[in-house]
Specification:
By secondary structure, this protein is mostly beta strands. The protein has no helices and 33 strands. It folds into two domains: 1-64 and 79-121, UDP N-Acetylglucosamine Acyltransferase, domain 1, CATH 2.160.10; 129-248, UDP N-Acetylglucosamine Acyltransferase, domain 1 (3 Solenoid), CATH 2.160.10.10. The chain has a twelve-stranded mixed beta sheet with strand order 3-6-9-12-15-18-21-24-27-30-32-33, with no helix packed on it. It starts with a strand and ends in a 10-residue tail after the last strand.
Length: 248
Amino acid sequence: MYSQISESASIDRTAEIGDYCVIQENVRIGKNCHIANHVVIYPGTLIGDDVIIYDHTIIGRPPIKGKRSVKRAAEDSESPAEISSGVKIGSNAVIYNQTSIGKNVLIADSAAVRERVIIGRETIVGRLVTIENDTTVGKKCKLETGCYITAYSEIGNGCFIAPMVQTSNDNFLGRTEERFKHFKGLILKDGGRIGVGAVILPGIEIGEEAVVAAGAVVTKNVSARTVVMGIPANYYREVPPGEWFENQ
């Protein structure tokens, strides 16, 4: 069936391209890739070897801004998305430009990865997860179904974020010019874990190997290797060494 492929695109002969795909200028697709049906790949996108992209997914799309959107100088960059070898991307996902996806990452159905996001190798991004702009996610993390990672967040290696976790970066709730000086998302250090449905307020730092219990509302920093729980979250106990990521 028909696909629209730019003459300037470079596609290895071992790659398989499905029906009704749009592959735009200067896209590069490596060896043994499988691009399913109705996939759109924007100009300049770099795709490594052994990548699988399922139906109706969009790769390398530029961001759009409303008249009142918060802006940063870097947003005008048009650097392409980079998808490393061994990545799998599910159906209906949207990966913006200016992103870097590490080796063997899994991005599940209907996930959204915004501009200027870096995701480390072997991380799993679950169904319906949103990772907002200017965020770094380390290697070997798990971001479970429906969690929301706000803009300007920093997530270390080996972290676990359970379903429906919500994070925020604006203590001013979108009011006053003062807020532009204070935007700051979640800081989750290596091995940190956040339980299902927890809410993390702006700029909170959760220390190495710390645990936030399900349903907690975190209003202050969490020390390394401690468990917090409740509304607001408070100290509960220490995290035993047998649960540390480095000991797995």
